[in-house]
Amino acid sequence: MSLDFEIPRCGIMAVSVKGGILSMNCLCRIMRGEKSMNISTILNYLTDLSENNNREWYHAHKTEYKAANEEFETLIQALIFRIGEFDPDILHNDPHTLTFKLNRDTRFSHDKSPYNPSFRAHISSMGKLPVPVGYYLMIRPGSQSFFGGGLFADMFKDATAMVRDYIVAHGPEWDQIVNAPDFKDHFTVQGTALKNVPAGYDKEHPQAEALKYKSWYLEYPVTDVDLADAGQFLTHATEIFRLMKPFNDYLNKALAGFQMPTR
Fold first, then answer.
1. CB of 186 within 8 A of CB of 240?
2. Coil, helix or strand for 65?
3. pTM for this structure?
4. Is residue 60 within a helix (H) or strand (E), and if so which, with residue range?
5. pLDDT tens-digit map of 66-86
């Protein structure tokens, strides 16, 4: 990765990067080092929210939310720097645009808790859209955090068909990726799956099991202890995401040309 900038003053919002503009809330905070990050601020807030999951508590603790959210966005910016070393296509992202709201849609759920006590972000070449696939982070207390990659969304029939057709045509490459020792040591392909190979596909195809899926994704668990040291956490996250990249690249080749449905 090559950055074109002088040592900035606090408050600079963007620097030139080969391939685009790297935006941030405060570049100098990142450059002062990951030592200044305090992930416990995030965990403490989310723990309190999970124990007080109601609108009254949420609105009464907006200051704590803003502090935790700022820490999370700083963490995401640091991840963008790190991931950008092996995937420069994501360097243009502003962390503010990559995160998801805490609000839950409770219309069709028995659980009427208004908030999801987790901070989440998806980092890809097109931001937080599910396609193209990228690098997903969820921080949730109780050791429920994880790193993710691949296609989580199973509601896009065109995307599912594109991946299936690509697996049919490029089966050996799929096998090479998912059977690589490092991959098998860290991941198991997950996703919504049918009981049988879908109509129109060969039941005897060498990758028949993969064709049953409607989505293909990876999850790597992260404990609260893993979050204790920001620097070590970022190093760990970077290595896991690096191992996910061939899987993501394969799916993104399959999904080339996919158009998100318009609302």
1. yes
2. helix
3. 0.87
4. helix 55-60
5. 999 999 999 999 999 999 999
